[in-house]
Design brief:
256 residues, alpha+beta, Arc Repressor Mutant, subunit A, Chorismate lyase, two-stranded antiparallel ribbon, 8 helices, WH-like_DNA-bd_sf, GntR family transcriptional regulator, UTRA, transcription regulation
Length: 256
């Protein structure tokens, strides 16, 4: 039988839980923690214990030590991980986070010539543009824009898009399924609007643009994600298309 002492929770866990609760409910990104001596007094622990707890929180992205300044609160990086063509909602949900929508705006319009060219539209053919502020655990994380030929989604408007995953909605309501996609990722300076909406501390954003295609290789959606460069990681897995179909299916099942 194990002794009671063997089940004792390490003391630094007490400080870890204490700080994590304050980070999630009281502090915001950019705030400085009290000094380590003050935290030791507040938690009735030693400086060594406080240093261990802070180190653990730094390792998962909640804190960052600044030499000569102190310890600053950070937002942990969001990892948007994709295998093949998948939706943002599915990717984020798969990591255990809770995605939601802050607001949604739907507008029918004649697109720019660049967008019309990418979607292979006829002159003056209209699209529907869907703009959303996406949240993770109720915090703003990215602006999302989707533009689709109106002829493919007749009757669409904000009130009927009641699912978090637009891809699932398009599949269920219109039978539209993305078979492949072309993507580009780049960083740029944020606009004043993006700084305000995304509550940016550093005015640099990561922009992910995607052009999605149906099974007949017809482009049907042009989308973009605009997210804080300092806290958003876009990750994808590449698969060898020359593999035997059976091996390819096994691989896709394994990584999905």
């Amino acid at each position: 039988m194990k002794k009671a002492s063997e089940h004792k929770v390490p003391l630094y866990h007490k400080v870890y839980d204490y700080l994590l609760e304050k980070i999630k409910n009281e502090y915001i990104a950019g705030d400085f923690l009290p000094t380590q001596s003050e935290i030791a007094i507040q938690t009735e622990t030693s400086l060594i214990t406080v240093k261990r707890a802070i180190k653990e929180l730094e390792a998962i992205g909640y804190l960052e030590s600044k030499a000569g300044k102190g310890t600053i609160v950070r937002k942990p990086s969001v990892v948007d991980s994709h295998v093949g063509v998948s939706s943002w909602t599915d990717s984020i949900s798969g990591l255990g986070s809770v995605p939601s929508t802050g607001w949604i705006k739907v507008k029918k319009r004649v697109p720019t010539s660049s967008t019309a060219d990418k979607l292979k539209l006829k002159a003056r053919e209209r699209t529907v543009r869907i703009k959303r502020l996406r949240l993770i655990d109720d915090n703003p994380i990215c602006l999302m824009n989707n533009e689709i030929p109106l002829s493919l989604v007749p009757g669409i408007h904000a009130k009927v898009i009641d699912k978090e995953s637009l891809y699932n909605y398009l599949k269920d309501e219109y039978g539209l399924i993305a078979i492949r996609a072309e993507e580009e990722v780049r960083a740029r300076e944020a606009t004043e609007y993006e700084i305000e909406i995304l509550q940016l501390k550093t005015p640099i954003v990561l922009v992910v643009r995607r052009l999605s295609f149906l099974s007949d290789d017809v482009p049907f959606e042009l989308s973009s994600i605009i997210a804080p460069a300092e806290s958003y990681i876009y990750k994808s897995q590449q698969i060898n298309r020359t593999l035997d179909p059976k091996d390819l299916n096994k691989l896709l099942t394994k990584v999905s």
